[in-house]
Design brief:
Radius of gyration: 27 Å
Structural class: alpha+beta
Low-confidence stretches: 14-25, 361-372, 374-384, 391-398
CATH architecture of one domain: Sandwich
Number of helices: 9
CATH topology of one domain: Immunoglobulin-like
CATH superfamily of one domain: Cupredoxins -  blue copper proteins
CATH class of one domain: Mainly Beta
Helix content: 10-25%
Largest sheet: 7 strands, mixed
Distance between the termini: 73 Å
Oligomer: single chain
């Protein structure tokens, strides 16, 4: 009996040992990873300045112990993509407006000057402060008339990712928003080596126009920090650094923001820092309208990783409505685009009776200012040259009539020379011989291939080393998290320093490198 008991105890002990050995090789849990990160980041900590690519910060002056910021509401021309400049409303020459960074405990004064043609006011989203400075027009303050001024005063006792925006709804849709960072009195742990802010917006702009339709409910230009891919500036990170990204959404849509190659922890909202015990892991975070979401991760996986909204239509530029059958083959059974929503819902119209054709259905795509029809007559002949140019204001705005016909401006000529159309045409071998007979074809080959190669048009130091032709596949709310090994990181930083750009959003990094 004793021998049997000894045998069982020995067997159970051996089994437990084997299980313990297996655990040595098991993948670490999220909690174990977090503890490891804290051990790595247990040195001195400080508040890392936030980088808002393509925008930068609002500078301040001191009046005694008060930080004084001057904010000017004005009409702004914003280039959102190569050869696409739109007329928006913003602050201090940019839309979104410049990021304001302060510290918990600061006394802050913001002087607003209104250079718009109509009244405005600024709401300080998430602030717990005096009602007189909340920015509610007609409620907490009188609207600031054109040419007028209003002074806001705050004693900062919060910390986290907040924002400011016009409290006139359509002005907000025209671009009037910005990020407001309140750094904590006691720096967050684990320490983040890089800290980025990304503003999320949408615009509805007709192809031959430059003014957004702020009344529209659908959008065809989706931008991050006021730029659409491939014009966005990447986030430059040295491999092994801990990174924080602050997403701020002040548009009309919710956005599932996704990063490639890494798993992050959600660490903050527009209500401030989340207690560490309540952080949750993921690689996609839903940023709702009027919300901010902070994520943190250790960038230990080298590569040029995308960060983008995962709504498929938000990874495109210049969308418009489709009508008629979505196929190039006459007589084929391509998917019909239809006409209007009422018809698609069965509320048929027509005298006498109603047609029953397969194209008598809902209109797909994005209506950008006019109703779609099933079939639209178009001319095969070219427009007259002046009308043709006038109809392409957004892309050909610098072309002007001259004594030798239509002439390009210097920048337009450079951009046209920089375009590489070689990769735009889809090769026959890339498409199946029977493609036109396959339901739902075409999808990602509507244009018979990717976009034109714009690598040279969007060339900047932060893009150094990207794979040739990368710009053909970046549209809408898409940019890169570039996790670079030390040697490649140093080369990119050296080029950024050499560029010596005024008001460089990366200035805080370049001064420390």
């Amino acid at each position: 009996m004793a021998n049997r008991r000894s045998f069982l105890q020995s067997a159970l002990g051996l089994g437990a040992g084997l299980f313990a050995t297996d655990n040595l090789y098991a993948a670490p849990s999220a909690a174990q990873k977090l503890k490891a990160d804290r051990r790595v980041n247990n040195g001195p900590v400080f508040n890392t300045p936030v980088i808002t690519t393509d925008i930068g910060d609002l500078p301040y002056t001191m009046d005694g112990d008060i930080k004084v910021f001057h904010l000017t509401a004005q009409v702004v021309k914003r280039q959102i993509a190569p050869d696409k400049t739109i007329d928006v409303w913003g602050f201090n020459g940019t839309a979104p407006g410049p990021t304001i960074q302060v510290n918990e405990g600061d006394h802050v004064r913001v002087i607003l000057d209104n250079q718009l043609p109509e009244p405005t006011s600024i709401h300080w989203h998430g602030f717990e402060d005096h009602i007189g400075y909340d920015g509610q027009p007609g409620i907490s303050q009188e609207p600031v008339k054109p040419g007028g001024r209003f002074v806001y005063e705050f004693h900062i006792h919060q910390n986290g990712t907040y924002f400011y925006h016009s409290h006139m709804a359509m002005q907000e849709m025209a671009g009037m928003l910005g990020t407001f960072i309140m750094h904590p009195k006691e720096p967050y742990r684990p320490h983040c080596d890089k800290d980025f802010a990304i503003n999320i917006q949408e615009y509805a702009v007709l192809p031959n126009n430059t003014v957004p339709n702020t009344m529209n409910m659908e959008f065809n230009w989706l931008v991050l920090n006021g730029k659409a891919g491939p014009a966005l500036t990447p986030l430059i990170i040295r491999q092994g650094e801990r990174v924080r990204i602050r997403f701020v959404n002040l548009g009309m849509d919710h956005h599932p923001m996704h990063i490639h190659g890494h798993t992050f922890q959600v660490t903050g909202t527009e209500g401030g820092r989340i207690p560490e015990t309540a952080w949750w892991p993921g690689n996609t975070v839903l940023v709702g309208v009027a919300q901010s979401r902070n994520i943190e991760f250790v960038a230990n996986n080298p590569g040029d990783w995308m960060v983008h909204c995962h709504l498929p239509h938000h990874m495109m530029n210049q969308m418009s409505s489709n009508v008629g059958k979505m196929s190039r083959m006459p007589g084929s059974s391509g998917m019909p685009a239809g006409v209007d929503m009422n018809t698609g819902m069965g509320m048929l119209q027509g005298t006498p009776g109603a047609p029953l054709g397969e194209d008598y259905g809902t209109s797909l795509g994005r209506g950008m200012g006019f109703g779609s029809v099933a079939d639209m007559n178009t001319t095969n002949g070219p427009l007259s040259e002046p009308k043709n140019i006038a109809s392409m204001q957004g892309m050909m705005g610098e072309m002007k009539p001259g004594k030798n016909g239509i002439e390009m401006g210097p920048e337009q000529m450079r951009n046209m020379m920089a375009m590489d159309m070689g990769g735009m045409k889809q090769e026959n071998s890339d498409i199946a011989p029977n493609a036109n007979e396959v339901p739902n074809f075409p999808q990602d080959v509507y244009m018979e291939g990717p976009m034109m190669n714009m690598d040279k048009m969007v060339d900047k130091p932060e893009n150094y080393g990207l794979r040739p032709g990368w710009s053909q596949f970046m549209q809408g709310m898409m940019t890169f998290i570039r996790v670079l090994p030390p040697d490649k990181y140093d080369k990119v930083i050296a080029r950024m320093k050499q560029a010596n750009r005024p008001n460089d959003p990366y200035a805080s990094v370049l001064s420390r490198s």
